[in-house]
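Good morning C.,

I know you're traveling, so I'll keep this short. The sequence:
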Amino acid sequence: MGQAGPLVRGCWPVREKDVMRIGEGYLKAGQPLIMKIPGMEGFNRSQIEEVTSGGIVVSMPVSQGEVVSLPQGTAITVQFWDRYANYRFDTVVLGETRSGQVPVLLLRLPDHISRIQRRDFVRLEISCPVIFEIAALREQGKIASPVFTGHTANLSGGGMLLVTDLDLPPKTSLHLAVKLPGGLVVPAMGEVVRMINEIKTKDGAKYWLGIRFTGLEEKDRQALVRFIFEEQRRLRREGKM
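The tokens, ready to paste straight into the viewer:
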């Protein structure tokens, strides 16, 4: 990406840094991310365009095929991921600007980036109903995107093994809803990491897809982790694990 144009209210880009480490995470150009925006359901996808000493330049978030404009001072939560873990930080919108003819958003550099704790990745072997949409289709916003179904083979605070009749390539982004026993529904953003297995049945093929959560609200993450630990304790009491 070339140098961006002048930023709003006295802020301006400086020489681009390829990578910047803050706390436990690295920020770099080209990094996909998602934003939790106050007053909006779910998460909005974006991407880091530049990391400068003046802030983080990101592409404009999109919802239902429409660009979301955020006023200066809006507080948001950002999540991103790499092959090893998910990360989270809080930031504030400094303003909108343009890179050439393309509108972009400037975010304040965070004071700290937190890595999701390892306890979130304790896995529970359990079958829970899942419905999901393919993010790229949903975000086009032109027609209602198809809703697919499946179930978990295992589940953790970091992701799931999803069994479905849909063969999806790695890096496919999904909007998911997992129904836990007791009726609690956990919404999340997820990404296909790999296909673990393919099983042929008389009704067709079943695909076992490794899914990593890339967007999970804190209250939902805590509820999911709490459910997994309580279920494990119950199984241990009953001598089943």
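Safe travels,
E.
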